[in-house]
UniProtKB/TrEMBL annotation:
SUPFAM superfamilies: FMN-binding split barrel. Residues 10-125 form the Pyridoxamine 5'-phosphate oxidase N-terminal domain. This is Pyridoxamine 5'-phosphate oxidase family protein. It comes from the Bacteria.
Length: 141
């Protein structure tokens, strides 16, 4: 299944269908950190997930907001890079509702949890359904 890496809606649809991924952050000591996350996306391609306020991914994002996220389907993987941020006020509620809608029973809007938005600036699609596998890159501005 080839996805156009420059098509934000198509990438967002893939992320929503898969529903989870791995986020990579950089810890205080400079070491890489990864966490498996439940993940959704807006139609514009913004990634959205929740994390406990005291989790290492939330702590790392507060200090070093550059992240990479990998989402994998059957033959396709999508790698996304961007700048993450802890949301507040109306945006927190709006995106938290999107998380709760995608994941019924989610505690995303509970006290002690953060809603994290990732503004994506780079996408790489790896499509292994073709031989040889196809790699497609796109920069989002």
């Amino acid at each position: 299944m080839t996805i156009d890496a420059s098509d934000r809606a198509a990438v967002a649809h893939f992320v929503r269908v898969c529903g989870s991924g791995v986020v990579a952050t950089v810890g205080r000591d400079g070491a890489p950190q990864v966490a498996h996350i439940a993940l959704t996306a807006t139609d514009e391609g913004m990634l959205v997930f929740d994390a406990a306020s005291d989790s290492r991914e939330a702590r790392s994002i507060r200090e070093r907001p550059h992240v990479a996220v990998a989402v994998t389907g059957a033959d396709t993987s999508v790698q996304l890079e961007g700048r993450a941020r802890i949301t507040h006020d109306e945006e927190r509620w709006r995106l938290g509702e999107a998380c709760s809608e995608r994941f019924p029973g989610s505690r995303a809007l509970d006290a002690g949890f953060e809603i994290i938005a990732v503004d994506v600036h780079g996408v790489r699609i790896h499509d292994a359904s073709e031989h040889p596998p196809r790699v497609i890159d796109a920069a989002w501005t």
